[in-house]
Amino acid sequence: MPLKDLLNFDETTARAQAEAARAAHSSAETTFEAEMKIAEGLGGQVDGDTATFGFWTPELLDERVPQGDIFLEVLSPVTPLDLTRAHQDISFERAWIPVIREGAHCFTAVTGMEAGTRDKMGDFYALAWRDAKDKWHRILDPLAMSLPFGAMAPAELYDVQAMQAARTDRAYFEALRGKAPHKFGPPVNILQIHVPTATAGGTLASLTRHYQRISDRVARDLPLEPADQLFVGYDAVQLLPVEPTTVYETGPDFWCESDANNESVNVSILRPDTTNWGYDVVISGTSTVNPVLLETGRPDELVDLAAVLHNFASKPKKLIFDVVFGHADNQGLRALNSHFFAGPNMYGQNLDYQNPAVRAILLEMQRRKVNFGADAVRVDGAQDFKWWDSAKQELRHDDQYLQSMADIVQNVADTQYRPWFIFEDGRPWPDEDWELSSTYRAVVEAQRDDDVFQWGPLTFAHNTPFLYTFWLSKFWRIREIVDNGANWISGTSNHDTLRRGTQVSPKMNVNTRLGRTRMEILDKAYDNPAVHVLTYVALPGVPMDFLNAMARGSWGFIRNQDDEYGVKVVAEEAISLKWQVDEYSYLVPANFRRLKELGYETREDLVRFMDFLPALVDVTEYDLDEIVRLLSIAEPPLAGPEFTVASLKRIAQAWMNDMHEYCNIANALSTLDRAQVDFCLAARNFRHARPWLRDNYGPKDRFDYIHPINGRTVVTSLRHGPDGEQVFSVAHLEGKPTEEMEPLSLPVPGIEGTGWKLALRTPSIGDEYVGGPIVLKDSMALVYVRSG
């Protein structure tokens, strides 16, 4: 039977939706409250045999489009669609369903549509309108719950209720059910994970299998290898953003149509394969999952990961989503109407938070996303949530919107709850003096909840622990953490700090005591055992580690979609070659294969090209034609292809694709140092056994560095637990070795007397040391405990 005969317009339901929207605007106290009610019904949703659709379409009012030219476009594949294939040519039947317009919203309802589930594909849809020249235009669904071909393609109608009903962690949520919504609090510590580089498979399904295998081994009390130990000892897992990101600027498109008519269309379909670090979002589609991360193409994979974490054998692990609503990439202009945006910024586009409909839709996107099963939310770039105050002629921070984010009540497994919230906020960034003037407490002090967290000052972007004097120069910030850090995320390794570290010139004052090579220095700087003692023993707050840093793998700004500025981005990343890739690593056959095919057979060939490129980008003010001319006349000639603008862009994309593969931690697992991995796990377990270490220092606690400096930064910490236990630590963070010293004889008030036991020692000290005089060198630390 033709698709148009299978589908039926449910006018009664559609008119009821429109009437409800009208009633909301007539009865709500504010326009925003009305839009919040309406937003709950937007997008494509399944209710029994009926599918309902709602769109916010102010652009149709701008264009004066009559209702008779607006339809829901339904596309149904004629032959089975396999989301695990790289390329397919599929014919779709097409049908058109009338809509009911109410102001700036369009609604419709239809029976007979196929809704997607884990086991079957659903029909695709978009809103479509016809102009006076009979040309069709498409409006995509920003609240779609399945986007198998990305945010720039029609959405799949998805049965979210079926996905939720099948989740295997229902008991976890049901145990939290109460009369009032459950409020999640902070975990003891966090592991930050970039899904595409966390496992060889690079998908959510692959990561889920990995955690399930570890959980099964823990349940059987089997030993864990270092590669598995990297993932344990954490209370929570924070994923870098998993929403759809940008697509290739100049193609190929993942959904490319041909031979279209009113009843059918042929589509050349590509499986999405972009590489991205997660923060280049287009906002549209934030409610669902980036298809690049889905092995099966089914958003259920994110629910599966939540369930495995919540059902983990030793104890449940919390899942934290990292959401990006502070900006949109310029590609967002292709996916959303212009009313979503308030003008350009350094990342792309500002969002118009003061528009009631935009504000409501963004919050609804967040609600639907977190309902996949997250226990907590980390908000990226909270300092970027701003609005223009015309009365004062200045940009103001939208703290009320941030509060609204934290106030949303989620519903999973019929359990209402409010997630724990973390805000990254470095205001007054990007002011020039932000590193000096930011308090990192603006959101904590503005929010009503006392368990709201922010990223702390050592966790923010410009963090270079591999340079001499870093720790001493940051001592004032460390003192702030000691005094006020209970509601800060602590630690020095995360996606941003490691990326910034690889962009630092190796000609600066590098701490060569950290390693023999630049790679060793960078790896140890962000996985430093003495710094782990500082973070997990001495400082309050919630420690967070980045998986790539803990694996001593590589990391960088990974994004292969750029065409216009791709060469410039690679020029900015060029220094990372000197920090993260040595001659041996480059020569491994599987590494940098695309660049080798372009003529960069050795690391030396590539280094020479990368030395030229940033300088030419700078002096030519990014004139690609002039860059090509200058590269072509270099003497002796540079390795690589014949230089043209097109070949430069190929080199840039090859670099990004090769670096993405190189950064996968699967490449680092065989070289893990068991002693270091064991120590890091022991430090995490030490913190777990003493959750009170999260609190700020009390009146009897002590923290300082050893005076005089004498060419090194050695810090001491004495903390007192509620049961009377004392924890004393001494950590050598940088500089020359100490003289032979007895740690328990240092002039720290409160450590006098006997009864101390050595609890932790960093790997380079050796198991033979059990106490007494010692010479502490860079990256060494000791932790003692004494019962009360």
| CATH evolutionary superfamily of the largest domain | Glycosidases
Give the overall pLDDT as a whole number. Answer: 97
Major β-sheet, in short?
8 strands, parallel, barrel
Rg, nearest Å: 28 Å
- Total number of strands: 32
Question: Structural class of the secondary elements?
Answer: alpha/beta
Could you name the ranges where pLDDT drops below 50 across 5 or more consecutive residues?
none
Helix tally equals 29
Measured between the Cα atoms of the first and last residue, the distance is 80 Å
Q: Helix fraction? A: 25-40%
CATH topology assignment of the largest domain: TIM Barrel
List the strand order in the largest sheet: 12-13-16-19-24-25-26-27
Q: What's the number of structural domains?
A: 4
Instruction: Tell me the overall shape.
Output: globular
What would you say the CATH architecture of the largest domain is? Alpha-Beta Barrel
Name of the top-level CATH class of the largest domain: Alpha Beta
Strand content: 15-25%
Task: Note down, in words, how this protein is organized.
The N and C termini lie far apart (80 Å). The longest helix has 18 residues, at 645-662. The chain folds into four domains: 3-165, Immunoglobulins (Immunoglobulin-like, Sandwich); 183-247 and 278-550, Glycosidases (TIM Barrel); 566-662, no CATH class; 691-786, Golgi alpha-mannosidase II (Immunoglobulin-like), CATH 2.60.40.1180. α2 (11-27) runs antiparallel to α3. The chain has an eight-stranded parallel β-barrel with strand order 12-13-16-19-24-25-26-27. The protein has 788 residues and is α/β, with parallel strands linked by helices. The protein is built from 29 helices and 32 strands. InterPro entries: GH (IPR017853), GHL5 (IPR029457). One of its GO terms (molecular function) is hydrolase activity. Keywords: Hydrolase.
